[in-house]
Specification:
It contains 6 helices and 7 strands, in the order βαβαβαβαββααβ. It is of the alpha/beta class and 210 residues long. The chain has a single domain, classed as Rossmann fold. Strands 1, 2, 3, 4, 5, 6 and 7 form a 7-stranded parallel β-sheet that branches. β1, α1 and β2 form a beta-alpha-beta unit. α2 crosses α3. The radius of gyration is 18 Å and the shape is globular. The two termini are 31 Å apart.
Length: 210
């Protein structure tokens, strides 16, 4: 079974980002295991080379290490990522816990409200060695009233989008690694290589659900 770790970058109670990921747990396909990380407030500040790993960090790294892929939903603060989320990613980057893992983001706000945060998120994930799966990144703006009393988003569009994202992440794990070109293609200037056009992905990057 594919295991996907869900991380919200919002520490506020009643957060739309957290509610969207809570909804992902409810509506995940039966063959995909999802776990929502909820220890963002408990993480200590990142200290490079910390010899004694704090317990909250050890738990975070254990959960990230056990996951096959990561899905993140975050707001934008002061033109960038929330400091608490960047702190979490710093811990994971130092430990190499995201290296090689597919990652995607879910946006629940209009483009003008979080684009800088998403750009930074992709850069940090890439630096940490994660494989940002752009075709699985989806934007579906939500209104606060879409969240019910249990903290679940009752928008069917989101339910479909979440299932699409989780399946895309799972499929990426089963896909073969791209083959490296033979050395003669790399070094020969006599026989130029015309790369074959790949088929279009199922989703366009940052697809907007309307």
């Amino acid at each position: 079974m594919t295991r996907i770790l869900l991380i919200s970058g919002d520490t506020r109670e009643g957060s739309l980002h957290t509610a969207a990921l809570r909804t992902a747990v409810r509506f995940a396909p039966a063959d995909i295991g999802v776990l929502r990380y909820d220890g963002l407030r408990d993480l200590p500040a990142f200290v490079p080379g910390e010899p004694a790993m704090p317990a909250p960090v050890a738990l975070l790294r254990h959960r990230a290490g056990a996951a096959d892929a990561v899905l993140i939903s975050t707001p934008e603060y002061a033109g960038s990522l929330p400091g608490s989320l960047k702190n979490l990613l710093d811990w994971l980057a130092e430990g190499g816990d995201l290296r090689g893992k597919p990652a995607a983001w879910l946006s629940v706000t209009p483009p003008a409200q979080d684009q800088a945060a998403l750009t930074t998120l992709e850069a940090v994930l890439a630096h940490a060695g994660a494989r940002v799966l752009k075709p699985a990144c989806i934007r579906i703006p939500l209104a606060p009233q879409a969240v019910d009393e249990q903290g679940i988003v009752n928008d069917p569009q989101l339910h479909t989008a979440l299932q699409d994202m989780l399946r895309a992440l799972a499929r990426s794990l089963a896909a073969p690694e791209p083959r490296q070109p033979p050395s003669w293609q790399v070094h020969s200037s006599l026989y130029p290589v015309v790369p074959r056009r790949e088929s279009s992905p199922r989703f366009s990057p940052g697809r907007l659900y309307t």
